[in-house]
Amino acid sequence: MNSKAPLIPPRGKIELLSPAKDLICGMEAIRHGADAVYIGAPKFSARAAAGNSLDDIRQLCEFAHTYDARIYVALNTILKEEELKETEILIRELYQTGVDALIVQDMGITRLDIPPIPLHASTQTDNRTPEKVRFLESAGFSQVVLARELSLPEIRNIAGQTSVALEVFVHGALCVSYSGQCYLSASLSGRSANRGECAQSCRLPYTMLDADGKVIVRDKHLLSLKDMNRSGHLEDLLDAGVSSFKIEGRLKDVTYVKNITAYYRKQLDAIFARRAEYKQASAGQCTYTFEPLPEKSFNRGFTPFFLKKRTADITSFDTPKSLGEPIGHVKEIKGNSFTIAGIKQINNGDGLAFFNKRGELEGFRVNKAEDNRVFPLEMPSVQQKAAIYRNYDQAFEKLLSKPSAERTIPVRMEFLDNPFGFTLCLTDETDVRVMLTTPFEKELARKEQETNIKEQLSRLGNTPFRADEMIVSMSDNWFVPSSLLSEMRRKAVEKLILNRGIRYRRELRKPLAEEALAYPEQELTYLGNVSNSQAEAFYRQHGVESVAPAFELSPQEDVPLMFTKHCLRYSMGWCPKFHKQASLYKEPFYLLYKDTPLRLEFDCKNCRMVIYRTLNINT
Fold first, then answer.
1. By C-alpha distance, which of 241, 298, 429, 280 is closest to 19?
2. Is 172:245 a contact under the CB 8 Å cutoff?
3. 162-197, pLDDT tens digit by residue?
4. C-alpha–C-alpha distance, residues 466 and 458, integer Å
5. 3-state secondary structure 441-465
6. DSSP class per residue in 483-511
7. How many CB atoms lie within 10 A of CB 63?
8. Distance of alpha carbon 83 from the chain centroid
9. Does 47 have pLDDT greater than 80?
10. What tens digit of pLDDT does each residue of 540-580 get?
């Protein structure tokens, strides 16, 4: 924590927000510690391949609400005119399932005839300034997802000028472009990122050329970034005013969701244990059968990504594939095996990888491991001293393939007698209380009863609860049959679950401010992503005088297709601000994939790189 920086007061309870590609992933995210889960709608999600049925979303809401956890549905694509009515109907159906909020990009949604469901402004709405966030707050948004590129001082500045809940990404894959401002995929393949169909053109191999056609770098993944990992900066983000910590990964498998959610849950809980002003947003505590480690799950290497300063370690030029965890280097090659110098245990069935002579990531499966000697299924072209990575840990994955976490809500149980029989009271950690009284003809017992009473009542397995405190208070040593205790426990638990459900309240959408702010710009180009009449009407209602259609409706030539804080001139060591060495190559620079050239421009004033599509080199 930076003690010199002014602390922003906490904005309610602190939320760990996990991804879910489906119902199973969502339930496991809750079990492993998520306070909220975001999941794709049946349609119109920014991950078109991660849609879910209404029935699955309903089941997920019921499960999550038991723990006071929330379910947010991503409905964050731009919408065509003919899709507005269908979207309106879909939102009504989603509201009926119990969804707590919608994550949206298209401002046309705010003008539809929809229930009072809260709206969160997706990162696709390009939220980088206090003016933009202040406007969204005045327009009725209850949570705003900030751009990944923002630094701590920038986040703190936004928090100091707004009161809306601020959500930031803390882990997962990085879009190289400002979210919502990338048209590279739409231009090259017709698949729009703003429509949930990104072709991931940024992960392709490119050759970098100068203005004279000289090759600077050949066949490298020059727009591919490492994955974000801000686990070491959570307290800084809390003190900067962040209230929601988001894990990327709606296309990731369930073991990724389990591992990364558990890891961040433990990190946040450790902070909460010594910082009383920060509280968990949901109920229940988690126990795990494994030690969560982020390097065990899919990753391209990690970076905190501009959070404190620009650094050279944000890129993954050699491969867009998962590296996994570094485990050592090749010490000795002998026949069909080799030894690894390192301290990590290697298991039969592990997946290992290394960079071969061509600079390509090459993987192989371990057939047999004897201490640090590896016998591959087929001997790879590995060289002595080569760095070895493990991108599939057989033992770890096997552990996560089984039930790997339990989430329980602590309850205080009180058992006492009354003139007509016995009473059982349950009070959970959120002060929901139930009382069950059962008539029973009492008689004195021959044996001591308190031990059996506590033992029988504490058997809360297969329920969301655990007995944290047990009090038996009887006027005498009355005989209480185990069958009666079991029945009272079952009925009391059912009543507690019912009462928790009754007490759970969804938030309502915030109304438009009485004096709604004007939009920060008076003219919107294609960068406004306006693709329907309701979105246009929204912006005009808020003072925008000129509204151009979205790129997807009217593709344009010679316009920026990507804005990125990643700068290849910086990566090559030629930045006029950070480096003393000047480039020996003639600008403009180009990226070439197959026969498609892209022109690079460097906006040093804003410290970013801009990418254009061009017909030929030198045009």
1. 298
2. no
3. 999 999 999 999 999 999 999 999 999 999 999 999
4. 7
5. CCCECCCCCHHHHHHHHCCCCCCCE
6. HHHHHHHHHHHHHHHHHHHHH--PPPPPP
7. 18
8. 27
9. no
10. 999 999 999 999 999 988 899 999 999 999 999 999 999 98
Residue with tokens 């601020």: 166
pTM of the predicted model as reported, rounded to 2 decimal places: 0.95
Tell me whether residue 561 is in a domain.
no
Mean pLDDT on 202-225? 96
**Residue 379 counted as domain residue:** yes
Residues in the chain: 619
Amino acid at 416: L
Judged by DSSP in three states, 609 sits in strand
Give the H or E element holding residue 407. Answer: strand 405-418
Q: Report the C-alpha gap between 123 and 125 in whole angstroms.
A: 5
Cis-peptide into 588, omega within 30 deg: yes
- Please tell me whether residues 147 and 259 are part of one structural domain: yes
Q: Give the pLDDT confidence score for residue 236 in this predicted structure.
A: 97
Task: For residue 41, give the DSSP letter.
Answer: -
> Helix, strand, coil % (nearest 5) of the chain?
25, 25, 45
Other CB atoms within a 10 A radius of the CB of residue 511 amount to 9
Q: Are residues 265 and 348 in the same domain?
A: no
CA pair distance 144, 162, nearest whole angstrom: 11
Q: Report yes or no: 51 and 45 within 8 Å, Cβ to Cβ.
A: yes
Contact 293, 390 (CB under 8 A): no
Tell whether 180 is covered by a domain. no
Q: What is the pLDDT of residue 12?
A: 80
Average pLDDT over residues 308-317: 92
Buried b (16+ CB within 10 A) or exposed e, 524-553: bbbbbbbbbebbbbbbebbebeebbbbbbe
CB 215 within 8 A of CB 207: yes
The tally of domains found in the chain comes to: 3
Q: Which residues of 349-379 are buried (b: 16+ CB within 10 A; e: fewer)?
A: bbbbbbbeeeeebbebebeebeebebebeee
CA dist., res. 416 & res. 474, Å (int)? 5
Q: Residue 580: what pLDDT?
A: 84
Same structural domain, 358 and 420: no
**Distance between CA atoms of residues 611 and 589, nearest Å:** 10
Angle 167-72-499 (CA atoms, 0-180°, nearest 5)?
Answer: 115
DSSP run (H or E) holding 188: helix 184-189
The residue whose two tokens read 């790129």 is 551
Condensed to tens digits (0 to 9), the pLDDT of residues 81-102 reads: 999 999 999 999 999 999 999 9
Of the three residues 477, 503, 529, the one that is the final residue of a domain is 503
Strands annotated E in 523-559: 523-524, 546-547
The confidence score (pLDDT) of residue 3 equals 46
In a domain, 575, yes or no: no
Q: Which two tokens stand for residue 562?
A: 């990507």
Q: Is 92 helix (H, G, I), strand (E, B) or coil?
A: helix
Tell me the residue range of the domain where 440 lies. 409-503
Helix axes 130-138, 152-160, angle to 10 degrees: 40
